[in-house]
Amino acid sequence: MAYQEILELRTAGRGTRDIGADVARVVAASGVGCGLAHVFVQHTSCSLTITENADADVRRDLETVMARLAPDGDPAYRHDMEGPDDMSAHVRSVLTDTGLAVPVGAGRLLLGTWQGIFLWEHRAAPQRRRVVVTVIG
Amino acid sequence: MAYQEILELRTAGRGTRDIGADVARVVAASGVGCGLAHVFVQHTSCSLTITENADADVRRDLETVMARLAPDGDPAYRHDMEGPDDMSAHVRSVLTDTGLAVPVGAGRLLLGTWQGIFLWEHRAAPQRRRVVVTVIG
Amino acid sequence: MAYQEILELRTAGRGTRDIGADVARVVAASGVGCGLAHVFVQHTSCSLTITENADADVRRDLETVMARLAPDGDPAYRHDMEGPDDMSAHVRSVLTDTGLAVPVGAGRLLLGTWQGIFLWEHRAAPQRRRVVVTVIG
Questions:
Q1: What is the interface pTM, i.e. ipTM, of the complex?
Q2: Which chains touch C (3 or more CB pairs under 8 A)?
Q3: Per residue in A7-61, pLDDT tens?
Q4: Beta strand B115-121 with B46-52: parallel, antiparallel or unpaired?
Q5: Burial (CB count <10 Å: 0-12, 13-18, 19+), residue B115
Q6: How does pLDDT run across A70-126, given as a tens digit for each residue?
Q7: Which end of chain C is more exposed for a tag (fewer CB within 10 A), N or C?
Q8: Which residue pairs, CB below 8 angstroms and at least 24 apart, start in B56-61?
Q9: B101 touches chain C (CB under 8 A)
Q10: What gap in Å lies between CA B66 and CA C123, rounded to an integer?
Q11: pLDDT tens, position by position, for chain C (137 residues)?
């Protein structure tokens, strides 16, 4: 059995947005008791990640690390049509992935106590992002 | 319902090969309307990724970044039995993953307009790669 | 059809533990012939990865690379409540992911010859980790 919804979410520019409640709502609507919830962004300059949800400094530090691994405006990049955050956003998306899956048990997301699901915007400006949630059981 | 095919694909050495049409063909053969298409490489020195499919410079820049994060012939590596691209290929595989899943809706892959599915060869020489595509709905 | 087990596994501190046999046992118990085995850790300071299972130097080299990409005790980190390996563990978890899926065919994990499934502890001290295995077919 598979159930699917496509969400349209706004981001506030670079940074993370907690989408756990959105995903949980789709899981509840699916009626699936045991299975998987898969989340996918239809873009190549943002990503999805699971990380610590308690201290916002964790996500700030993740940005600091990404700024080293994939800096904006790197002179080595050839692809820069949309500005200094164009190619760096693609790199960050590839390193952190456009999709993830969370197990579902007893009709709920089986996340750990400190795990949050985040939509990670890598472009500097706010964007509209399409997120496909598929629940299989 | 699950449907599976194992594809044998050749790579031309380091770089990306668009396998979106191969995956789409398996999805069509599966008859699944709503669900997930999972793609997996049975190797540890190549990977699968979703990134921008329009400008080939994006994939060239991704190689540039990988050459920094996981350089060939790094003297710190102990594992170099198969040459300078041996361990660097394992690192790149771990950073970018051996598997990914794309949602299926109305019998088609729900990729964004600019998303392509790429088999990413990290070894310098051409290889034969086994790719398992599993469609669940 | 979905089958699920939650495993409680101990780690010996930073490093990898091969959990392939644990996952294979759950697949056998599931009775699923064709489908997917999804593995997920309910934590944000360890991860799951598939890499070379023959030469342990590969995993040692992966630690060497991670120590560069996400060093312990980096003065740039703001989040360091649990010590110098706190934030570095979160970064490594995000870069290598809390979940993965392996195809199942003829009732077995369709891993390549040299592929192992590893629980990767990023904290310095031994931990108890909860791993959710979900088999769908």
A1: 0.97
A2: A, B
A3: 999 999 999 999 999 999 999 999 999 999 999 999 999 999 999 999 999 999 9
A4: antiparallel
A5: buried
A6: 999 999 999 999 999 999 999 999 999 999 999 999 999 999 999 999 999 999 999
A7: N
A8: B57/A78, B57/A79, B58/A44, B58/A79, B58/A87, B58/A90, B59/B15, B59/B16, B59/B118, B60/A78, B60/A79, B61/A76, B61/A77, B61/A78, B61/A79, B61/A87, B61/A90, B61/A91
A9: yes
A10: 25
A11: 999 999 999 999 999 999 999 999 999 999 999 999 999 999 999 999 999 999 999 999 999 999 999 999 999 999 999 999 999 999 999 999 999 999 999 999 999 999 999 999 999 999 999 999 999 99
User: In this complex, which of B76, B81, B99 lies closest to C64 when CB atoms are compared?
Assistant: B76
Element (H, E) at B5: strand B2-10
If you search the block for the tokens 């809706």, which residue do you land on?
B105
Nearest to residue B103, comparing CAs of A52, A2, A20? A2
